[in-house]
Each structure stands twice: as structure tokens, then as C-alpha cells.
Write a structure and sequence with these properties.
Layout: H1 2-10, E1 19-23, H2 29-32, E2 35-41, E3 59-65, E4 68-74, H3 85-88, H4 90-97, E5 102-111, E6 121-129, H5 157-170, E7 174-181, H6 190-199, E8 203-205, H7 209-217, E9 221-231, H8 242-266
Parallel strand pairs: 1-4, 1-5, 5-9, 6-7, 7-8
Antiparallel strand pairs: 2-3, 3-4, 5-8, 6-9
The structure holds hypoxanthine.
The site of hypoxanthine has 13 residues, from β5, β8 and β9.
Length: about 270
């Protein structure tokens, strides 16, 4: 199924794409700055899952960014949409077959760390998979990777160093922290957020961890950024709404976009 999807995409694009970028909720604007874009809608790709989440368009954008050839995913697939963990990571595997070696994942997240403000960008240093599932459960496909992949350096130390240097040069304040991935779709309770803080999490969201597991499995270098879209449940007097997540994404997407573009140029 993965090979069929990749074959279809190969027939629509040229090759040489070594960098993949997954754009999270409200962060798809980055894809609009891709030069000489070729669009491939998920719905046209055989066997491909289609994202239905708010703020997600649902297509690949092939082109160049900072003089590098990139594959951008404008919209990702979430477990809470009802897809299997295997389907959630299928796009990562398709990108692998298309030649991607380095993957940048972005998301909108709730800030758990009390020092974080709404609008901050957090570089992900590590994650906690709290979804209760793992996309590698089932028969291992050795063409992608080993049965028990190491996750000690899930977020590439060298790419993180590059990102820090870019952010410094650009005067962008870059937070760092641990992302905890939950299944959703309900937001967390305040008690869950207190528990997650005690576990060492700095930001919480409903994506990313499965894709990063699959990317590590197939030996991609990963870099991840969370845009703090809201304070996590119980940390402000407000109720959480998906609209605020999308709105903050629009507002701060520019900064994230500039940073990702600069990092891609240095990758
Ligand atoms: N929790 C989970 N996912 C999220 C949040 C949150 O507070 N904000 C954006 N995505």
C-alpha cells in the first residue's frame, strides 16, 4: 500500500526530496511559501488517509524552500480521527520511499510548563507517548527498520543544535521541552495536566509522537517544534476551544515559518 502511494506520487513529481515537513494545526501557511509548488491531494493518492481535522487542508506540497527540495504535508492524519496508528504513520513511510532523510514535525500544543507563554515556540527535545498505542505494533516490516528501534535520540541532537543557532541568529526566543502526545480528541483535564507536569512534560498535544516513532524506525533524523497555542487545561480561567488553537497558529505561524525556512537552509 505504501509503495503504491509512493509510485503514484512519483508519477506526479520529480525526485530528490530529502527533507520532509509536517505542518500542524494552523501552521500550513509554511506550505504557501514553498517555491515552484506541485500539489498532490491526499484524496487522489491510492490507499492514503485523508485528514479531517480543523485547520488542515490535506495535501502534499512538493517544491523548494531555502534552496532545498522539500515535501510538505499541509495537514496531517490524527489517531482521534479514527485512523489506525499504522495509517497515521503511512505518510512518513511514503516520504521515506520518496527519499526523505530528515523530517521536521510541527504542531500546536498546550503549554504545561508554567514559564511558557501563548505564542512561544518550543523545540521538542524528547517526547512521552501517552496515546496508549504504538504504530509499530504488528508484524515488523524489516524493509523500514528493526523490530525494537532505539528512541534515545528521537529528536536529532545535531538538528537541534542547528535550530538553536538559527533561532539565536534571528533573535527568535526558542523554548525547549518535552512533548507529551495524547490520543484526544477531548482536551485534558486539569488533573491530567498536573500529572503530566509531574511526569516531566512541558507541552501537550494530539499528534507527532506516532510519526516520530515511525520516522526513527526508518532511520530519519527528526526535528520538532510546538507552537504553544494555549495554556493547558486548568492553567487559566478559560475553557479550551479549537478556534483559539487555529487563531494563534495564524498569528504566530510567521515566526515558526521563518525559523523552519532558515533551519531547512542549514540542513
Ligand atoms: N491539549 C491537547 N492538544 C492541544 C492543546 C491542548 O491544550 N492545544 C493544542 N493542541
Amino acid at each position: 500500500m505504501v509503495e503504491k502511494a509512493a509510485e503514484f506520487i512519483r508519477s506526479k513529481t520529480d525526485g530528490g526530496y530529502e527533507i520532509g515537513i509536517i505542518c500542524g494545526s494552523g501552521l500550513g501557511g509554511l506550505c504557501d511559501s514553498v517555491e515552484n509548488p506541485i500539489y498532490v491531494n491526499y484524496s487522489d493518492i491510492p490507499n492514503f488517509p485523508v485528514s479531517t481535522a480543523p485547520g488542515h487542508i490535506g495535501r502534499f506540497v512538493f517544491g523548494t524552500l531555502g534552496n532545498k527540495k522539500v515535501i510538505c504535508m499541509q495537514g496531517r492524519i490524527h489517531y482521534y480521527e479514527g485512523y489506525s496508528p499504522e495509517s497515521v504513520v503511512m505518510p512518513v513511510r511514503v516520504m521515506k520511499l520518496l527519499g526523505v532523510k530528515k523530517l521536521i514535525v510541527t504542531n500546536a500544543a498546550g503549554g504545561i510548563n508554567e514559564n511558557f507563554n501563548v505564542g512561544d515556540i518550543m523545540m521538542i527535545t524528547d517526547h512521552i507517548n501517552f496515546t496508549g498505542v504504538n504504530p509499530l505494533v504488528g508484524k515488523n516490516d524489516a524493509r523500514f527498520g528493526v523490530r525494537f528501534p532505539d528512541m534515545s535520540f528521537a529528536y536529532s541532537p545535531s538538528l537541534r543544535k542547528t535550530a538553536c543557532e538559527c533561532a539565536n541568529k534571528m533573535g527568535i526566543t526558542l523554548r525547549e521541552g518535552v512533548y507529551i502526545g495524547c490520543s484526544g480528541p477531548s482536551y485534558e483535564t486539569p488533573a491530567e495536566i498536573r500529572a503530566f507536569r509531574a511526569l516531566g512534560a512541558d507541552a501537550v498535544g494530539m499528534s507527532t509522537v506516532m510519526e516520530v516513532i515511525a520516522a526513527n524506525h526508518c532511520k530519519m533524523d527528526v526535528l520538532g517544534f510546538s507552537l504553544v497555542a494555549n495554556k493547558a487545561a486548568g492553567m487559566s480561567n478559560n475553557r479550551l476551544t479549537e478556534q483559539e488553537v487555529i487563531d494563534i497558529g495564524r498569528e504566530k505561524a510567521n515566526v515558526m515559518q521563518k525559523l523552519v525556512r532558515a533551519v531547512v537552509g542549514e540542513m
